[in-house]
Amino acid sequence: MSAPPDPQPLYLDHAATSPPRREVLEAVWPYLTRVTANPSSAHAAGREAREALEQAREVVAGVLGARPGEVVFTGGGTEADNLAVTGIARAAPRGRHVVVSAVEHPAVLETALALRAEGFRVDVVGVDGDGVLDLEALRRTVTGGTTLVSVMYANNEVGTVQPLAEVAEVCRDRGVPLHTDAVQAAGSLPLDVDALGVDALSASAHKFGGLRGAGFLHVRGALALEPVLHGGGQERGRRSGTVDVASAVGTAVALHLAEAAREEESRRLAGLRDRLVAGVLAAVPGARLTGHPVRRLPHHASFCFPGVGGETVLAELEALGVTCSSGSACAAGSEDASHVLLACGLDADTARTAVRLTLGRTTTEEDVERVVDLVPRAVGLARA
Ligand code: PLP
Questions:
Q1: Is there an atom of ligand 1 within 6 Å of 186 CB?
Q2: 22-258 has which CATH code?
Q3: How far apart, in whole angstroms, are the C-alpha atoms of residue 354 and residue 338?
Q4: In sequence order, which ranges of 193-238 are alpha helices (DSSP H)?
């Protein structure tokens, strides 16, 4: 009798990227094969492409509770963040002061820091040990002269969900626009921009079942935005370049499906995440959860396993058939300790032991039981 086949590798890196939904691939296909005209062209084929693009925009706007004209399709989350931070700051009529949190993704943090070269003052507000923004420090830092505040909705490395309502109140009181990077939250948390109290929101399609290299920025109609890409004036002058209709259609389909399933799926994933966290903390000596224990993304579990490098644990896990990451796909392989974990007060050695396991649509209870069994083995092998 032959040995049973090895089980499929278990993919637990959905925060890095989640596979596109089948429905998205089906919806996109006609726009790669049949409706392929430039949506800015005046002819009938162009009009057909434009109609699909505008329909996609309406669907996205519907999920955000926004007007379609407030949605700008971009080539992903990084571009949306760059456009928001640079575009709003440069267009602002007053102040040259940008405030961001210390745990922002580099797409926001580095963009804000780059504004220093243009004479902006950039303040970085810290977080507590769970990665939650220091609201008192925010209140002290943001003034009536501040140009823009950018605070992410939920963190990619430690999963902490920020107190956005309180941040919005601080900004509203001082008349300062608020941008949020909702790249990790989209698909898991509510996105109604009025309820959130934000003036601009960025998202990335590949985190909620759309295509990589696709995303959008929402910007309130009243808020001026200077384009970063200059050219033919597409997207109402806010993002030049021939719009990728297929990607926009895919983004709309993915967001619509994710929103329809969101509450039930988030409940299911939160249950699995809690089982995973409890199982790992119970079985791995010295293990600690990073990020907030409760106010965290439903699909996100992140740990430090003191005494053993995160990359070594990842290699052992991979050999045992589990694919995951150390925290941020962008920083993978880097020797530098994560700026997020350092901001949470971890020392650099502990920060280098980070391992992140993020669940998705395809993750089952059996998968979680398997990983609860394998993580202690991987850490044990790595420590040995
Ligand atoms: N912001 C956050 C919080 C992210 O997690 C990511 C990607 O992981 C990005 C921005 C960048 O998005 P994209 O990969 O679409 O450029």
A1: no
A2: 3.40.640.10
A3: 9
A4: 193-196
pLDDT in tens, 228-264: 999 999 999 999 999 999 999 999 999 999 999 999 9
- Ligand 1 atom nearest to 215, measured from its CA: 15
pLDDT band at 24 (very low <50, low <70, confident <90, very high): very high
| Contact predicate 358/207, CB 8 Å | no
Beta bridge partners of 150: 100, 179
Distant-in-sequence, close-in-space partners of 286: CB < 8 Å, separation ≥ 6: 305, 306, 307
- Asked if 374 contacts 322 with a C-beta cutoff of 8 angstroms, the reply is yes
> What backbone phi and psi angles, to 5 degrees, belong to 232?
-75, -5
Name the superfamily (CATH) of residues 10-18+262-383.
Aspartate Aminotransferase, domain 1 (3.90.1150.10)
Average pLDDT for 292-307? 97
Q: What does residue 202 show for φ and ψ, rounded to 5 degrees?
A: -110, 150
| Ligand 1 close to Cβ of residue 39 (< 6 A) | no
Q: How many other CB atoms are there within 10 angstroms of residue 69's CB atom?
A: 13
Best residue for ligand 1 mutational test, from 85, 103, 110, 156 (most atoms within 8 Å of Cβ): 156
13 in contact with ligand 1, CB cutoff 6 A: no
Per residue in 311-351, pLDDT tens? 999 999 999 999 999 876 555 555 689 999 999 999 999 99
The pair of three-digit structure tokens given for residue 271, joined into one six-digit string: 């249950």
Residue 258 and residue 94: Cα distance in Å, rounded? Answer: 38
Q: Ligand 1 atom closest to Cα of 78?
A: 16
Q: Tell me if 327 CB under 6 Å of ligand 1.
A: no
Domain ranges of the chain: 10-18+262-383, 22-258
